């Protein structure tokens, strides 16, 4: 993945994961699989797990340990009220950026003609 794309994803991955959890609670591997299904195929599992620890510490998700047939119990993450509020703010910020970047792109791609 290009360095620029990696940097952009770092700034938005939290919101993307919260959006995935808004659809349905999930454990780490499931979240990674959903990211890949959504086209974010280059995101490493380790990145997702580190992010899950951060959003748990920030109180954006609730965590429930569910027994697993194989190995230790799984931590299932679900979006809580604080996480939902953060996600709403994320979407608002995203809409703002999308709109303003779109306008800027139009200006760059179709600059006003001098004297027009």
Task: State the main characteristics.
116 residues; alpha+beta; Arc Repressor Mutant, subunit A; three-stranded antiparallel β-sheet; 4 helices; 12% strand
Could you characterize what this model shows?
The chain has a 3-stranded antiparallel sheet with strand order 1-3-2. The mean pLDDT is 92. Helices cover 63% and strands 12% of the residues. The protein has one domain: Orthogonal Bundle (Arc Repressor Mutant, subunit A), CATH 1.10.10. The N and C termini lie far apart (41 Å). Helix 1 packs across helix 4 and helix 2 crosses helix 3. The chain is α+β, with helices and mostly antiparallel strands.
Output mean pLDDT.
92
CATH architecture: Orthogonal Bundle
Which class do the helix and strand fractions yield? alpha+beta
Q: For the largest beta sheet, what order do the strands appear in spatially?
A: 1-3-2
* Helicity range: 55-70%
* CATH fold-level name: Arc Repressor Mutant, subunit A
* Biggest β-sheet strands, sense, barrel: 3 strands, antiparallel
Low-confidence stretches: none
CATH class: Mainly Alpha
**Total of helices:** 4
The helix/strand order is: HEHHEEH
Strand content: 5-15%
């Amino acid at each position: 993945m290009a360095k620029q794309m990696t940097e952009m994803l770092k700034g938005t991955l939290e919101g993307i994961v919260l959006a995935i959890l808004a659809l349905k609670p999930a454990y780490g591997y499931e979240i990674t699989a959903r990211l890949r299904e959504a086209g974010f195929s280059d995101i490493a599992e380790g990145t997702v797990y580190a992010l899950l620890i951060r959003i748990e510490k920030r109180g954006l998700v609730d965590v429930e340990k569910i027994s697993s047939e194989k190995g230790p119990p799984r931590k299932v993450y679900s979006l809580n009220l604080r996480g939902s509020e953060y996600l709403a703010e994320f979407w608002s910020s995203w809409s703002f950026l999308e709109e303003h970047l779109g306008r800027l792109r139009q200006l760059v791609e179709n600059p006003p003609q001098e004297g027009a």
